[in-house]
Specification:
The protein is mostly beta strands. It is 0% helix and 49% strand.
């Protein structure tokens, strides 16, 4: 089983940048890819970005393409999400998870999340 812990969230202003981190531990030998999702109040958890653990292939939701960057350090078992030009929006909790696909139902393990509120 994989354990996950996100960090780096905090209150920011529109246009700011932020870096989120995800520490990955446990049975990581069969991890093929890692993803970031976010969830706003009253909304379903939505796909943000994904990166393959070998090969550095990246995939983004259209809403964040060009503004967010996903990266990973396999030696340190960490995943990162760089958020640039943040837009005013409802508070969102960001989660990391191992898996493939864009549906949250395809992912079985989740961290506790880290909150990123963007004040207007």
């Amino acid at each position: 089983q994989v354990q996950l812990r996100e960090s780096g969230g905090g209150s920011v202003q529109p246009g700011d940048s932020l870096r989120l981190s995800c520490a990955v531990s446990g049975q990581t030998y069969n991890v093929q890819a890692m993803a970031w999702f976010r969830q706003r109040p009253g909304k379903e958890r939505e796909f943000v970005a994904r990166i393959t653990w070998i090969g550095f292939n990246t995939y983004y939701a259209d809403s964040v393409k060009g503004r967010f960057t996903i990266s990973r350090d396999t030696a340190k078992n960490t995943l990162a999400l760089h958020l640039h030009r943040l837009q005013p929006e409802a508070p969102a909790v960001y989660y990391c998870a191992p898996g493939i696909g864009r549906s949250s139902y395809s992912y079985a393990s989740w961290g506790p999340g880290t909150q990123v509120p963007v004040s207007s």
